[in-house]
Amino acid sequence: MERGVSAGALPPGHALPPMRELAEHLGVNPNTVAAAYRALRERGVIETAGRRGSRVRARPASTAREAIRVDAPPGVADVGKGNPDPALLPALGEALAAAAAGAAARPVLYGDDAVSPRLARLARAELDADGVPPGPVAVASGALDAIERVLLAHLRPGDTVAVEDPGWGSLLDLVPALGLRVAPVAVDDDGPLTESVARALRGGARALVVTDRAQNPTGAAVSAGRAAELRTLLGAHPETVVVEDDHGHHIVDLPLHPLAGPTAHWVLIRSVAKAYGPDLRLAVLTGDTLTLERVQGRQRLGPGWVSRLLQDTVSHLWEQRAVRPAEVAAAYGRRRTALVGALADRGVPAHGRSGMNVWVPVPDEAGVVARLLQSGWAVAPGARFRTVSPPGVRLTVSGLDADRLAALADAVATAIHPGGGTRYG
Questions:
Q1: Which pairing describes strands 77-78 and 137-140: parallel, antiparallel, or unpaired?
Q2: Cβ neighbours, 10 Å, residue 424
Q3: What are phi and psi of 47, to 5 degrees?
Q4: What is the pLDDT of residues 196-224, one digit of tens each?
Q5: Buried b (16+ CB within 10 A) or exposed e, 144-165
Q6: pLDDT digits (tens, 9 = 90+) for 33-42
Q7: If we measure between CA atoms, which residue out of 172, 173, 174, 208 comes closest to residue 191?
Q8: What integer pLDDT is reported at residue 402 of this predicted model?
Q9: CB neighbour list of residue 165: distance below 8 Å, 6 or more residues apart
């Protein structure tokens, strides 16, 4: 069945035969079929809906949301990939050379600390300054790797995870791939809606994943008021595993309002991809001692550790202040604010409170994407980021100047209102 799904022979939504019927057809024990169906559910390939039986998931784990994209042909501007502006990334030569020199003087060998004390000290100092509760520091190969390790440290197949909707497409793929269920949580500019989170927790969600700032794709940032509401709510559900993704660290100028504290198990993750470069596959995380011990214990049995060369490279970048967060945040902020304002002038509401992305609700996602492509713009279809939320498109402002922002706003307005002219309001 898994091969059939991968090959397209069993399309999304395809109903699978009842277990007893299939067992009789194959001449095997029904328990054998039940075990196979269970394994397919845990791998995120199929889903079971009570009396309606089992069927191929609408988006099986073998079909990543990254496949839902628009490839930009020659001459088309690509504002859909979500990459940072290379001009705002620091040069890595000096930092890599310093890390190599350190390794030559004292090579890291088996049995050495998995986390560089230097990196841990620097990370913990910034976490303390942002009001994150005390906790040990671990290192993972990026934010998604860290989230996966935390979820596996506490949850079992079949458990439910509350995630933002719209939200990070890779996370929406990861959760079912781990055999977990997704409970979508609505989002506005101030972060996850408290009542929506409450509904998910009442429904049995055992974990909550929240993006603190520069939420992908909407640009939301958890405000002080929303954080206070969520902390009060989580205090009534102390068994919830809270995972905070602060990937916007060093590219936003909005303060962090952490949710950590009211629950027994929590983690806050900071990756360096957006501020220092996606190829620096590194994220630091802190949290409660038990969770960090489980994460690091399992890590030792797999990759062992994240390269100390990478850790030393990031430490050097931090110590030398290779990125000026205020300047980077201002650069993205100018473009993002200009685009949101230009769209508003043309009667198109949009969202983009922080980070490098702007989310535009649209009535006809496929039509808008196609019309924008015809007019010279490749955008990210909202289907990459949604489960039950309304359609939209994501626009990344990295690398766009003022003239192109205005042209993009014109194209979006025309694509949303074809034949009706640009609406200025």
A1: unpaired
A2: 9
A3: -140, 150
A4: 999 999 999 999 999 999 999 999 999 99
A5: bbbbbbbbebbbeeebbbbbbb
A6: 999 998 888 7
A7: 208
A8: 83
A9: 172, 184, 185, 186, 187, 386, 387, 388, 389
Q: How far apart are the first and last CA of the chain?
A: 53
Long-range residue pairs from 228-232, CB within 8 A, at least 24 positions apart, any chain: 229/194, 230/191, 230/192, 230/194, 230/197, 230/259, 231/259, 231/261, 231/262, 232/262
Closest to 154 (Cα-Cα) out of 209, 202, 109: 209
3-state SS class at 421: coil
Spatial distance between the Cα atoms of 146 and 151, rounded to a whole number of angstroms? 9
For 80, other C-beta atoms within 10 Å of its C-beta total 23
H/E run at residue 267: strand 265-271
Q: Compute the Cα dihedral for 122, 128, 129, 133 and give only its sign.
A: positive
pLDDT at 52: 77
Which pLDDT belongs to residue 64? 62
SS3 (DSSP) at 326: helix
DSSP secondary structure of 193-260: -HHHHHHHHHTT--EEEEE-SS-TTT-----HHHHHHHHHHHHT-TT-EEEEE-TTTTT--SPP----
Tokens coding 383: 């289907």
- Give the separation between CA 135 and CA 365, rounded to whole angstroms: 43
Task: Dig out the tokens for 394 from the structure.
Answer: 């994501």
pLDDT of the residue at 51 = 73
Chain centre distance of CA 221? 14
CB 57 within 8 A of CB 44: yes
Contact in structure between 33 and 72 (CB atoms under 8 Å): no
pLDDT < 50 stretches in the chain: 422-425
Residue closest to 332 by CA, chosen among 277, 397, 278:
397
Interacting residues of 369 by C-beta distance below 8 A, sequence separation 6+: 70, 379, 381, 393
CB-based contacts of 52: which residues, under 8 Å, 6+ apart?
none
Q: 360: which DSSP letter?
A: E
